[in-house]
Amino acid sequence: MLVISDLSARVAGKEILNGVNLKVDAGEIHAIMGPNGSGKSTLAQVLAGREDYEVTKGSVTFEGRDLLAMRAEERARAGLFLGFQYPVEIPGVNNVYLLKAALNAKRKAAGEPEVDAYEFLALIRQKMKFMQMSESFLTRGVNEGFSGGEKKRNEVLQMLVLEPKLAILDETDSGLDIDALKVVSTGVNSLRDPKRAVVLVTHYQRLLDYVIPDQVHVLSGGRIVKSGDKSLAQELERRGYDWVMGAQVA
Amino acid sequence: MSAALRSFEAQWRARTPDALQPIREQAIQRFLKLGLPTLSDETWRYTDLRSLAAQSFQKAPCETRGDIDPAASLSLVDANQHAATLSLINGCLPPNADRASINGIEISSIKTLSQSDPKGLARFFPATSDADQRRWVLLNTALFVDGLYLKITRQVTEPLVILHVSTGERAHEAAHPRIIIDAAPGSSATIIEHHVSHGGIAPLNNSNTHISLSMDAQLEHYRVYATGAGASHLDSLDIHQAHGSQCKQFTIALGGGLVRSSLEAHLNEPGASLDSYSLLVGHEDRHVDCINIVTHAAPNTRSRQTARAIASDVSRVIFNSKVIVNAGAVGSDSRQSCRGLLLSPSAEIDTRPQLEIHADEVKCAHGATTGRLDPDMLFYLLSRGLDRETAQSLLVYAFLADVLTGMSVSSARAAIENALISQLPDSQILRKFR
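YS: structure for the whole thing
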């Protein structure tokens, strides 16, 4: 589904990604771990199409299409979803409006009719209930005045409504208490499907207790330096990132 | 002496003295001595009046050719949702206008009142001032023909609309509309002043509104500038607030080639509270200059100023605000928030929040930012699949929301939104958000 080959990228003139290689197949959940500053968020943003991040080398295909040639909005409509590490607040733009516009953009691209307003509200309410979100969400601006945890729940809610083929969740677990972490994990697990894939970008192993990954990768210095199964995450938790980075030098 | 000044002096000499003569005399003498403001005057540094000063002005007519239908596109409020529409043509009242009556609001012609009660009226004419922001008020005081005096006597729920029609027979005419709003203790009302132009020629419009709020009175006041591209409009608003009174004021600049809008608020007694909202939209080559001066003259007074400026094409929008806290006005609480949004590389926005504090133990906050659309917000919307035009328009719309959501009159809000949207790029898309 997603094939990243030798991807390098620059942010504000600084080389952040240095030849990333990664292959994610449908039905899989991958975790990308790594210390702060290793390039995890940059990778997520580059995949989502952030324009001020400059790709200097390499290629990315998504379902066989050249992802890097697509604009951010085209990637989203093709079924790629980025759950932001720091979702931005947009006062004055209603949450529901955005969700509806996003869903309709996707449906339009797929040649489907726009969603019926009544059906849409029913869908939102059902997903909100699942994510244990309060009714006030419906009337508020996008992420406006939300706590860190509420913002992350909102990201997952959007993901559940949009049902992406590939979800990239950038530190969706950070800043969550244990109850919120469980809710978010349930949300992610509900998306597990032979036709979909999920990439979890995370600093800690704790999310992986709830969402079991098929593969775990360690990103360091802008490259994937180690890959393994879920036991790699546990080992990292025990031994720290220095262990991998030390191993790399050795 | 500039051509404009000479012509105003000639108009002054030609008029018949009335009961307000002493007040008018003082004002014109001051005005002629000080002259028109120039770029070197503090509050006029962004607005060049030289081409205006070179013109010779004549008195604008009090009649108009052709009918004006206030119920048509000119109206901001649904016919059945407001108490009445009072129309003024170049500041003049149509015959019998002062016989109109609304439950809770007494309506008089200022001209009539100046004959029957000149002393009572005089208190709504503040002492002459040399301050440069008050220069055109002096001229208005000297030359206004008539105007409306509204006495709000109790709690009125339905909004009252004042339709200011600016219309000319030939070029270089000037009108000086005057409105006095006098709210009795404990009364409340909503008053919408809507400035429009009719026909191809609009005179120079030098309007003034004086608002006096007695103890615990509440007023929601709108002034909406919607004149044509050729119109020059100089509008001033004076607000005087007594104990516990509350004023919510909206200044909406949607039209006019040159708009200069001033607001001077005096929070004279404890508990007085002002919420001022300004929505300033510049497009084409229009020039919008707005200045607010809020004086906290008593302890425990409160003011909020929220301004949103948008400039596209080669327009220029200026918003200056100043909060003055007088000595002894302890516990004053003020906030100024001004945000500007540039939609074209050739447009310009100038903002300057200022504070002048002469008392201890006050809370005064101010902030001003101007920029383009936030790239993080834009990327967030794009990453959800919205197309670029929609995402950009949505952010423009969101930018205006802080002011729009403060409006209590839903039909006026809808009409203002509509008019606003039609002046912004991608207006077809913006309409979808409403």
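YS: worth flagging: Chain A has eight helices and twelve strands.
IM: good catch. Also The two ends of chain A are 33 Å apart (CA to CA).
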